């Protein structure tokens, strides 16, 4: 049972970028440009990155950070809403949400990579300590 749970957690952590690559290839083969294909793949990957970052934070720190991630998303969203309002005369919610969603892809990707590296360093340090 423990091994199955570890396998499922490992799969959840690995899936986001595998999913991005698979979706990119599928959309690219269907005739879209490389830029459009990557945008579609990134848009679909964001929820999986959110889950993966949450799982990595829990595995590394032992705290459930789902609420912290949601609060962070809300703060970034408020920042994007303010920027959209200042930048244009009329508030275009569609563009604001699209830009927010793509920025979340970048932010969550960075968090994912940092947490993955931190987890590897932490595991190696524990191994060397004995």
Question: What is the strand and helix layout of this fold?
Answer:
Blueprint: H1 2-29, H2 34-61, H3 66-87, H4 93-129
How would you name the oligomeric state of the polypeptide chains in this document? single chain
Rg over CA atoms, rounded to whole Å, is 18 Å
Q: Helix- and strand-based class?
A: mainly alpha
Number of domains: 1
Instruction: Kindly state the percentage of residues in helix.
Output: over 70%
**Biggest sheet: strands, sense, closure?**
none
List key phrases describing it.
mainly alpha; globular; 130 residues; 88% helix
Describe this entry's structure for a reader.
The protein has 130 residues and is mainly alpha-helical. It has one domain (2-129). The protein is built from four helices and no strands. Helix 1 packs antiparallel against helix 2, helix 2 (34-61) packs across helix 4 (93-129) and helix 3 packs antiparallel against helix 4. It is globular, with a radius of gyration of 18 Å. It starts with a helix and ends with a helix. The mean pLDDT is 88.
Describe what is shown at a glance:
By secondary structure, this protein is an all-alpha fold. The protein has helices spanning 2-29, 34-61, 66-87, 93-129.
